[in-house]
Amino acid sequence: MSTSLVTVFGGSGFVGRHTVRALAKAGKRIRVAVRHPNKGFFLPPNGTVGQIAVVKCNALEGDQVESAVRGADAVINLAGVLHSSGENTFDAVHVEAAESIARAAKAAGARTLVHVSAIGADKDSDSTYASSKGEGEERVREAFPDATIVRPSLVFGPEDDFFNRFAAMARFAPALPLIGGGHTKFQPVFVGDVAAAIAKLAQDPSLNGKLYELGGPNVYSFKELMELMLAAICRKRLLVPLPFAFAMVPAMFLQFLPKPLLTPDQITLLKSDTVVTGANTLATLGITPTSVEAEVPAYLWRFRPRGQYDDFVRDRVQV
User: Fold this and answer.
1) Which of 165, 248, 256, 280 lies 20 to 30 Å from 289 when distance is taken between CA atoms?
2) Would 25 be classed as within a structural domain?
3) pTM for this predicted structure
4) 263 is a domain residue
């Protein structure tokens, strides 16, 4: 096992879990810094004894961040939120915490900092999410000039919050909304590919200082993704175009739910495509992107009608 240490902030999240596994397979020692250590209990079994340590760390507390990065050769920041809640606002997590982590990593002498942002990050964006991501990138580069910025498109995988959410809705709702008419373009990227890219960037200092945009092999409209999802779960549902202005009305109320189904800021985000436009991609790192068709049906089967569900399970058992 390598003696080098990698500190991962947000390692208990969706992308974080896969990133930690990728690093563990590469033989790295990993320190997973999370606000709630109990959410990281599932991580140690993925590595050898003593390879993965989960530590309590609030990324908004400077002293805890400094302790978390102490002795690390590489630092990965995966901390992010999809909606503001309490003290976990876009500005707090995407800007203040990002800057704190970058400053601490630089002061600790880390050779590499991988900062995970998002395609569309722009401090001048009308979306608070995108503008905070853009401001965060700028602050990170000021504190750690050789930081590597990673911007994924829509990330999909077994625990994703996109296909799983709409598949769950389709089990009961007779129709699904196509916000903005369903014309927004996405380039979905498999979580395993994103994790592999982040792990590679964290281990190779010669790749420092670049900006990478990660997307899958194909570009789809929002409507096409809904059609793929419905085909995967063997259900037929009406897809109803909903203009952005009309969608804002329910979003104004839904944003106050503990886990909002839709927020006004997300509608603003949907007005812009999320596709790769940069020169550095998965291909640059020698990673062949995985298609939506190759993975999504394999983890959405539980949303199929009972008969289809039973047939799927029976076929898998027989295999």
Assistant:
1) 165
2) yes
3) 0.92
4) no
Cβ–Cβ under 8 Å, residues 215 and 153:
yes
What torsion, rounded to 10 degrees, do the Cα atoms 281, 287, 291, 295 define?
Answer: -130
The amino acid at residue 182 is: G
Q: With residue 115 as reference, give the H or E element that holds it.
A: strand 112-116
What are the tokens at 169?
């809705």
How many other CB atoms are found less than 10 A from the CB of residue 293? 12
Give the model confidence (pLDDT) of 205-259 as tens digits: 999 999 999 999 999 999 999 999 999 999 999 999 999 999 999 999 888 888 8
Q: Could you report the per-residue pLDDT of 85-144, keeping only the tens digit for each?
A: 888 899 999 999 999 999 999 999 999 999 999 999 999 999 999 999 999 999 999 999
pLDDT at 192 over 50: yes
Say which DSSP state 173 is in. -
Domain housing 98: 5-155+190-215+275-285
Assess if residue 222 is contained within a domain: no
| Bridge-based pairing state of the strands 185-186 and 148-152 | unpaired
Contact 18, 192 (CB under 8 A): yes
Residue 217, both tokens: 């092999």
Q: What is the CATH number of the domain that holds 100?
A: 3.40.50.720
